[in-house]
Amino acid sequence: MTETGPKRQADRTERASLARWALGPAAAGPLVGAVWWLAAPGGILHGEGMDYLVWDERDLVLAALGAAAGITLAVVLASGQRRPGLPDRGLAALAGSVAGSGLAWLAGTLLGRLVGTRGVDAAVAGSEFGVQALSVLAVWPAVTALAVLALTTLWWQPPDEDRPDRVSPGA
Q1: Is residue 4 in some structural domain?
Q2: Which residues contact 59 (CB under 8 A, 6 or more apart)?
Q3: Three-state secondary structure call for residue 162
């Protein structure tokens, strides 16, 4: 049996919407990585890569940018008018934020290698621009996941009691 035209169109529209929610955060990843490379100590603008005291700050800048990206994504999710599709859109956004976080790390590291950074010495292990604690990559997806959980919990609507197709528990 084939699907009817309007149902097929609605399914196609929903798939396209979910693809946009997944690809949006993933596409933002390289932009976040470029900002990280510009703003972090040991990046292109300030700090010395050989100074081990700034390595934690470099990771914290990426974590802060990831948290800001996750909060921005939550605000965009919350501003959506369609509440019934929120869990699906939220999971798509979560998948996109995982990809975006990885792409941010790769973009920042690649910019550091191609364009250069300040105060890098090959003899000093860890002085090249990058992440020392890979756990900072989990900040963006974690903030997104918490936002999706909170929004889904706050906006969940119980089933309508007056629907004729609903059978009451006592019947």
Answers
A1: no
A2: 131, 132, 133, 136
A3: coil
Examine residue 168 and state whether it is found in any structural domain, yes or no.
no
User: What's the domain range around 145?
Assistant: 16-155
* Cα 131 to the center of its chain, rounded Å: 17
The one-letter amino acid code at 24 reads: G
pLDDT of residue 46: 72
d(CA 137, CA 168): 48
Q: For residue range 35-63, what is the model confidence (pLDDT) as tens digits?
A: 999 988 877 777 665 666 777 888 999 99
How do residues 67-124 score in pLDDT, each as one tens digit?
A: 999 999 988 887 765 666 777 888 899 999 999 999 999 999 898 888 876 666 566 5
The chain-wide mean pLDDT, for the chain, equals 80
- CA neighbours within 13 Å on the CB side: how many for 63? 15
In a domain, 162, yes or no: no
Q: What share of the chain is helix, strand, coil (3-state, %, to 5)?
A: 65, 0, 35
Does 171 fall in a domain? no
> Domain total for the chain?
1
pLDDT score for 17: 82
